[in-house]
UniProtKB/TrEMBL annotation:
This is Rrf2 family transcriptional regulator. One of its GO terms (molecular function) is DNA-binding transcription factor activity. PROSITE patterns: HTH_RRF2_2 (PS51197). Gene3D superfamilies: Winged helix-like DNA-binding domain superfamily/Winged helix DNA-binding domain (1.10.10.10). GO terms for cellular component: cytosol. It comes from the Bacteria. Pfam families: Rrf2.
Amino acid sequence: MSFISTGVEYGLHCLLYLARSPVGVEEASVRDLAELQGISTEYLAKLFTKLAKADLVVATEGIRGGFRLARPAERITVHDVVVAIDGNKRLFECREIRGCCAVFEDAPPAWATRGVCSINAVMQLAEKATRAELKQHTLADLVQRTVDKAPASYGVQVVQWLTDRAANRRGDKEEVAPAKSHRHG
């Protein structure tokens, strides 16, 4: 089992598409974002409920409605998204196995359980370092990395793809290109 779920990955990708950047738009529907990534709308809707409860996105109203970022991409960290979707779960839960050795015959000596479990201590340090690193990276940083590696045409395609779907829902008379599946990385 991963410490960070696949839902976090999908959530971050969706937020990239909402970051008002060369690879995103200001708002989009969950249905369109799900279709863009090839996942179920129901699954993504559950993720967006969590993102909204964490005040990372806000719902927009009307036929074109969907979601937009609740604050600038520079103020949303990867850690914020992890906690919003996965909760503040711990990386490691010490079970105090050190006191369960068969040679102790259900009576572990004081030395065996004194102080913090050395394995737990290492895991706590790892968790602290992981959380600190996740807090250092913002959605804006991820957008910039994507822009730096993707051809300029990618962002144009994504923006047009999402814009066309929003126009279809509004009933605009614009000619809309057929849907194509785009992966983001």
